[in-house]
Specification:
This protein is an alpha+beta fold and 382 residues long. The protein contains 14 helices and twelve strands. Strands 3, 4, 5, 6 and 11 form a five-stranded antiparallel sheet that branches.
């Protein structure tokens, strides 16, 4: 139950259970789209969070049999959890730390009992910052900067909001504090009203995961479009190696940039010294994840960076942009996909033949003109 396939971002082919894939975690683009144009660049909506993670598609929108390498070790060190847990969070469709069915509550709640109806509601109110301010007919009054909560005769609780600028569209479905899920409701209300997450651990890491998504690329497709001739690969490898000093300067700049994230000049300059890292130039986390390995000139990470840079370049040629995965029907529709791709092949062959004919005629015409010119020269010489 619940099985489904996803789409390969590059080829648009269906990915099904057991397919070898690369998973590319994504973040929303840091720059805002200003509108006014129907044309978009590959990084206008999303940017890569880190290097691709290799594994096998598990038929439930995630990875299994993850390949452990220097990349996954760097991610584990940064996020302080196993790569399997990292992927689980990145691919979880229930992105809510206050949802007891979500992997987020398991990893980030200080105490999973907060979501249980057995955890005393009034203790939870104090835990998330409410204050006792007096008594009502049926119990204590609890206040926060945005609301007041009192106990009712029937045993439930009533909440009255004190601020008019709250997002009531999101809050209105959570105001029932008489049901078994009142703890969950008040935690969500508090999060919406304060734009913070109470009762969680590692809030900085949680913030990254809450923003993140990801896309899949079929293994064979990825491997094909990262191919480079040895001279080009060697040149890029040496170029990246020579840029480590600049990267060191960028990492020092990054520490200042983290303090003042609104400094657009620092953000723009952040990774420009290391041109091979261009796909990550808007990513404020990338430098932290791989900084040590790059400064050590780790060969494996260098090769992965160079390969991913090649894919990034080819995405422009292949009319593709960074975009979260598209969920499709289980096993896809191979017959329809074959029909589409056969049609695409016919169109491309026709275009190729036209170009080849044009080039042939151009060359014939050029040779003919050259012969005329030579003939004229001979005449003039005699």
């Amino acid at each position: 139950m619940g099985c489904f396939s996803v789409c390969c971002t590059i080829s648009k082919l269906t990915i099904t259970a057991g397919d070898e894939v690369y998973f590319v975690p994504l973040l929303p683009a840091s720059k805002e789209l200003l509108g006014g144009s129907m044309y978009m660049d590959k990084q206008d909506l999303f940017i890569p969070l880190c290097l691709p993670i290799k594994g096998t598609y598990d038929d439930y929108g995630s990875l299994e049999d993850i390949v452990h390498d220097k990349n996954t070790k760097a991610l584990e060190a940064y996020f302080k959890m196993p790569i399997e847990d990292i992927v689980e969070l990145l691919t979880d469709t229930r992105v809510d730390v206050y949802d007891s069915y979500s992997a987020y509550s398991e990893h980030f709640l200080e105490d999973s009992a907060y979501l249980s109806e057995d955890f005393p509601f009034e203790d939870l109110l104090l835990k998330i910052g409410y204050r006792k301010t007096g008594f009502s007919a049926y119990g204590d009054i609890y206040k926060s900067d945005y609301s007041e909560i009192t106990r009712e005769k029937e045993g439930g609780y009533k909440i009255v909001f004190k601020k008019s600028d709250l997002d009531f569209e999101r809050i209105k479905y959570l105001t029932d504090l008489t049901s078994y899920d009142k703890n969950e409701n008040i935690l969500k209300i508090h999060s919406i009203a304060t734009n913070t997450h109470a009762g969680v651990k590692n809030p900085e890491i949680l913030d990254i995961f809450l923003k993140a998504s990801g896309m899949f690329i079929l293994g064979k497709v990825y491997d094909e479009f990262i191919k480079q001739d040895e001279e080009k690969k060697k040149s890029r490898f040496l170029g990246l190696s020579e840029q480590v000093d600049n990267y060191n300067q960028a990492s020092e700049l990054f520490e200042r940039t983290k303090i003042s994230k609104d400094n657009s000049f620092d953000r723009m300059y952040l990774l420009t010294p290391a041109t091979i890292l261009y796909p990550f130039k808007e990513n404020m986390y990338f430098l932290d994840i791989y900084k040590d390995l790059i400064l050590e000139k780790n060969k494996e990470i260098f090769e992965k960076l160079i390969s991913f840079r090649e894919l990034d370049s080819n995405m422009y040629i292949l009319n593709t942009m960074y975009m979260p995965m598209f969920q499709g029907t289980q096993c896809g529709e191979p017959e329809e996909e074959l029909r589409l791709h056969s049609l695409c092949c016919d169109i491309l062959k026709s275009r190729y033949n036209k170009i080849r004919t044009f080039v042939f005629l151009y060359l014939v015409n050029t040779i003919y003109l050259c012969r005329i010119c030579l003939f004229c020269m001979e005449c003039s010489l005699t």
